[in-house]
């Protein structure tokens, strides 16, 4: 198994393949927050959620993101972490930011208090906190937590993980059930072990964002705007990443296989930072019978040097025999030209009909 | 000849094809999911235009970014514009620090 394959499958194993999820790891800015909110809105709308569920998920997101934005300074290499998952009947929202160790006791106390209050009591507590907040002007972390508890209608599960003598990760996770009327006291959904595993994996590979779900043009545009605003790098490299992302994600939109009548094609995308650039990975289903043809196409562009690639591109650009809504014949050549490295790929047979195809493109400065 | 004007969206470019005011422009960014369909009316408009063009045609391309599917459609458009027997200028605009966009322009210039 290649390194690329290994990392991808480690991530897939942790994420629920059936679920839709995205995780962001990095410094949150206003434009990234906006991108995450837009992405969530698209997904909630696609999933045909009732307005009430949509509003609740949205409010919890806004509060959570603002909470992280206010408190995200930490030691080198440690970054805030944020995720939304949809699995079966549930939406899960997970957030993690770095806090000074001396705040742990106060924060735990506050959360325990919130978790012990009944619905009506929470309302009163919220009003009281609102008033105090206005008077003291302390900045509303407490208010945000109460609001999250109120909107989810469920307990706020939390945990801390020590980074060093000064700082810890503070994890907060809650969920919303699609059918709001049924109370659910099941806490197995709030298990942190998978989240810890995922966070560790993302940290070790320096992954900046993962999107696991249905790919369509809308999710592509939202992901692009998040990545665009996240990369504090020179414009030429940012543009290359943008370029490759569009080609990779549109490949999934156009050539991926829809499973279970989904409105778009399921797939995985993640981007990680490397020393002098980025690595972009995608995974999607294809027909098992198409493996050989795809493999030949990639091997063909992998063999060519830069000059040959340019000649191949020229030839294809004006070859109007290959010209329809699905194919221009240029995508793979472009990936290879922009990356200056060979395209890494793997196929994993899931059944006689379906296989999972992963590809990695490395972009250097 | 009726003009074809399309406003830019987050994934499709601004298009101005206006014979009366002598304006011909493709601008901003082009990454539609289905470039073939998006450029179809543009191509059809130009197909009619090349039959009876102005004495001088100045066609501006001022794109920040385009995907490979759009690259193919641009190739098709330039190919078509070559049928203009009167004077034709294609002006390729790019940001001064955008090497990729410069190279793309040079590629089209070399091939048409």
Question: What does this protein look like?
Answer:
The complex is a heterodimer of chains A (about 375) and B (about 110). In chain A, helix 2 (about 30-45) runs antiparallel to helix 3 (about 50-70), helix 3 (about 50-70) packs antiparallel against helix 6 and helix 11 packs antiparallel against helix 12. Chain A has helices at about 5-15, 30-45, 50-70, 105-115, 120-135, 140-150, 195-205, 215-230, 235-255, 290-305, 305-315, 330-340, and strands spanning about 20-25, 80-85, 90-100, 155-160, 165-175, 205-215, 265-275, 275-285, 345-350, 355-365. Chain A is about 50% helix and about 25% strand. Chain A has about 375 residues and is α+β, with helices and mostly antiparallel strands. Chain A folds into two domains: about 20-230, Heat Shock Protein 90, CATH 3.30.565.10; about 235-365, Heat Shock Protein 90, CATH 3.30.565. Chain A has a ten-stranded antiparallel beta sheet with strand order 4-5-3-2-1-6-7-8-10-9, with helices on both faces. With about 110 residues, chain B is an alpha/beta fold. Chain B has a single domain, classed as Transcription Regulator spoIIAA. Chain B is built from three helices and five strands. A five-stranded mixed beta sheet of chain B has the order 1-2-3-4-5. Chains A and B meet through helix 8, helix 9, helix 11 and helix 12 of A and helix 1, helix 2 and helix 3 of B.
Task: Give the low-pLDDT segments of chain A.
Answer: none
Query: Roughly how much helix do the residues of chain A carry, as a percent range?
Result: 40-55%
Overall tally of domains of chain A: 2
How many E-type strands of chain A? Answer: 10
Structural class of chain A: alpha+beta
Structural class from helices and strands of chain B?
alpha/beta
- CATH topology of chain B, by name, is Transcription Regulator spoIIAA
Q: Strands, helices and their partners?
A:
The complex is a heterodimer of chains A (365) and B (112).
Chain A: H1 3-14, E1 20-25, H2 30-46, H3 51-70, E2 81-87, E3 90-100, H4 104-116, H5 119-136, H6 141-152, E4 157-162, E5 167-177, H7 193-205, E6 207-215, H8 217-230, H9 235-255, E7 265-274, E8 277-287, H10 291-303, H11 306-317, H12 331-339, E9 344-349, E10 354-364
Antiparallel strand pairs in A: 1-2, 1-6, 2-3, 3-5, 4-5, 6-7, 7-8, 8-10, 9-10
Helix pairs in contact in A: 1-7, 2-3, 2-8, 3-6, 4-6, 5-6, 8-9, 9-12, 11-12
Chain B: E1 4-6, E2 14-18, E3 23-30, H1 35-49, E4 56-66, H2 68-81, E5 87-92, H3 99-111
Parallel strand pairs in B: 3-4, 4-5
Antiparallel strand pairs in B: 1-2, 2-3
């Amino acid at each position: 198994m290649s390194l690329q394959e290994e990392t991808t499958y480690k991530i897939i194993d942790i994420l629920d393949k059936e679920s839709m999820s995205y995780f962001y790891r990095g410094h949150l800015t206003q434009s990234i927050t906006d991108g995450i909110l837009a992405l969530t809105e698209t997904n909630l709308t696609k999933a045909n959620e009732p307005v009430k569920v949509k509003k609740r998920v949205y409010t919890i997101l806004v509060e959570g993101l603002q909470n992280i934005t206010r408190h995200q300074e930490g030691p080198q290499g440690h970054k805030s972490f944020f995720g939304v998952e949809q699995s079966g009947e549930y939406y899960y929202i997970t957030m993690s930011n770095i806090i000074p160790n001396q705040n742990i006791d106060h924060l735990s106390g506050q959360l325990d208090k919130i978790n012990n209050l009944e619905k009506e009591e929470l309302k009163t507590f919220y009003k009281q906190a609102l008033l105090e907040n206005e008077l003291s002007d302390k900045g509303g972390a407490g208010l945000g937590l109460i609001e999250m508890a109120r909107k989810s209608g469920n307990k706020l599960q939390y945990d801390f993980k020590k980074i060093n003598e000064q700082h810890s990760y503070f994890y907060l996770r809650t969920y919303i059930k699609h059918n709001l009327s049924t109370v659910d006291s099941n806490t197995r959904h709030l298990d942190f072990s998978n989240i810890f595993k995922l966070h560790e994996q993302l940290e070790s590979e320096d992954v900046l964002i993962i999107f696991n779900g249905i790919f369509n043009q809308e999710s592509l545009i939202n992901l692009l705007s998040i990545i665009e605003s996240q990369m504090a790098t020179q414009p030429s490299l940012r543009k290359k990443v943008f370029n490759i992302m569009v080609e990779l994600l549109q490949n999934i939109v156009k050539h991926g296989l829809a499973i279970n009548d989904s409105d778009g094609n399921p797939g995985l995308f993640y981007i990680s930072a490397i020393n002098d650039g980025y690595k972009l990975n995608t995974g999607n289903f294809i027909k098992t019978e198409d493996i050989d043809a795809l493999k030949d196409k990639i091997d063909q562009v992998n063999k060519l040097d830069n000059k040959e690639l340019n000649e191949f591109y020229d030839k294809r650009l004006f070859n109007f025999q290959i010209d329809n809504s699905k194919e221009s014949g240029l995508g793979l050549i472009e990936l290879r030209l922009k990356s200056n490295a060979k395209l890494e790929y793997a196929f994993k047979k899931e059944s006689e009909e379906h296989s999972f195809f992963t590809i990695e493109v490395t972009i250097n400065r | 000849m009726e003009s074809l004007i399309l406003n830019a969206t987050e994934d499709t470019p601004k298009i101005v094809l206006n014979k009366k005011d002598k304006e011909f422009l493709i601008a901003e960014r082009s990454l539609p999911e289905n470039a073939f369909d998006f450029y179809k009316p543009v191509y059809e408009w130009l197909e009619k235009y090349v039959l009876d063009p102005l004495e001088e045609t100045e066609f501006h391309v001022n794109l920040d970014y385009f995907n490979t599917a759009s690259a193919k459609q641009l190739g098709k458009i330039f190919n078509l514009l070559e049928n203009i027997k009167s004077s034709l200028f294609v002006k390729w605009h790019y940001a001064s620090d955008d090497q990729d966009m410069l190279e793309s322009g040079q590629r089209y210039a070399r091939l048409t």
